[in-house]
Amino acid sequence: MEIIKMQLQENSPFPNNKLPVVIYKKALAEIFKQNDYSGEDVLGFLEKHHYSNGWINGILSKHHFHSLAHEVLACISGSARVQLGGPESETITFTQGDVIFLPAGTAHKKKDSTEDFIIVGAYPNGDSYDMRYGEITEYSEVKENIIQVPKPELDPVTGQSFLND
Known about the structure:
This protein has helices spanning 27-32, 39-48, 139-148, and strands at residues 2-6, 21-25, 51-57, 71-77, 79-84, 91-95, 99-102, 108-113, 118-124. By secondary structure, it is an alpha+beta fold. A six-stranded antiparallel β-sheet has the order 1-2-7-4-9-3, with helices on one face. Strand 5 (79-84) and strand 6 (91-95) form a beta hairpin.
């Protein structure tokens, strides 16, 4: 499994976060020792590492972020190109088996995907999340919210202390 850390800069009105985005390439195949796993399997695995309040669906096709919670996304089918950090920022390819940790405030948007693209999402300790779309009038509020979100205790994939290096 390859682990990639991306440090995104503030991109007003998308605050992003001082914590890095962490991409775990092909993590699910390593975890399950195969490429056949269900959304329920992945939700159960994430819950063992204290990520819950989960769902199975996709990624919105407009820039958005959560100011009250970090988010972990796991691709269980297909692939998508996802822009991280707001307009004019980097686009990654998110494929079956990949897991992404998005710190609170990290803008993300699906640019395009295969028809079979499905992901699982969950939040540290089952935190409640909000939907924010980069409204400049909310910028001060969301920045304050993000500062209050504690670093997760556990890494969503390894179950070890989060970002302990």
